[in-house]
Design brief:
mainly alpha
Length: about 375
Amino acid sequence: MFTAGNRFLDARGIVFLVVLIGAAIVVPALALLPKNAALHMPTYLVALFGKYLCFALLALALDLVWGYCGVLSLGHGAFFALGGYAMGMYLMRQIGSRGVYANPNLPDFMVFLNWKELPWTWWGFSAFSYAMLMVLLIPGLLAFCFGWFAFRSRVTGVYLSIITQAMTYALLLAFFRNDMGFGGNNGLTDFKDILGFNVQADATRAVLFSISAIMLALAYLMARGIVVSKFGKVLIAIRDAESRTRFIGYRVENYKLLVFVVSAMMAGVAGALYVPQVGIINPGEFSPANSIEAVIWVAVGGRGTLVGAALGAVVVNFAKTWFTGALPEFWLFALGLIFILVTLFLPKGILGACGEWMGKWRKPSAPRGNGEPAIAE
C-alpha cells in the first residue's frame, strides 16, 4: 500500500479543497439564479450533488480506518444511518401540529399506532443542539462499545469484517420493528423545517449543499492531520505489521479504538447531512449491502489516499444514477464488473493509478554510459 507523502497538504489535497470550496460557492449561486436563466441549476441537481458529497464523507471515514489502519469495516452504513436517524428525529419534532393528525406532541406514525406519549428515546430532540450532539454521540458510543470488545479480543481480518456486518444487520432488524419507536418499515419522512427554514425551499437546499461541501473539507483536514501525525504513523505500522507493532510496545487496541470511534462519528455527520437533502430515512439505510458498496467506493477511488475515497464515492454514485435511470436492471451487474476491473487492473484505485502514471511520465531519462544521448527507460 502507499500513502501520500509526509506534508500536511500535498498537491492533490490542495486541489481537492479548492474544488470543494469552489463548489460550495458556485453551485448555490447557480441554483439561486432565476429559473429562466441559462446557467440556472435545478433544485433536484443540487440535492443530488449534495447526496454525493455525503457519500464522499462516508467513504472518507471508511478510508481512515481501512486504508490507514487496516480495519475493514462492513458496518459503517450503521453509523451513517444512526446519524441520519438522529437528524430525522429532530426534523420530525419540528413538524408539530402540521402533520396529518395535527398532534403537536407525537409524530404521525405514533398517532397511527395509538401511542399515548413520546418514548424516552425521543426526549430532547426538539432542540437542534441536542440532536447534533446525538449525531456524534450515538455512532461514537456504538463504535466505542463494539471496538472495546472486538479489538481487545484481538479479532482481526475477515472475522472482524463479518462481525461488523452482523452488527449492522442486527440494527436493520431492530429498526424495522414498530415497537422500537422509529417509524418501522416506513422510517421518518414528511419533513417541514430545519432551524425554522423550509427544508424544501431552493435556498435551504443550496445552503445544505454548501454545508455538506464545507464539512467534507473539514473532515478531510482532520483525517489528513491524523494520518500525517505520529499517531498516523503508528496506524500505518498497525496496518502493515500489527504483531510487530504490538511487540515493540504499542497498545494497538487503543489506537484502533480511537480511530474507529472518530471514523464512526464522521460517518454519523454524513448521515445527518444526507437526511434533509433526500427527505427520508428508513431502516433500509442499515442494509449490509450499503456498507459493502461503501467499501467499493473506497477501492475504486484508491484505498489509503483519502481524496481517492471521496472521488470513488462520487464516480460510482454518478454511474449508479445513470444506470438506474437508463438500465436499472443492470446496475448490480455493472457495480460488480467495476469492482472486478478495478481489482484486476487498478489495484490502487483511480487516484493511485493516476499517481503512478504521472510518476512514470515525470521520471528523468537515464544517461547512457557510452556518451550517447539519454533515453527514457
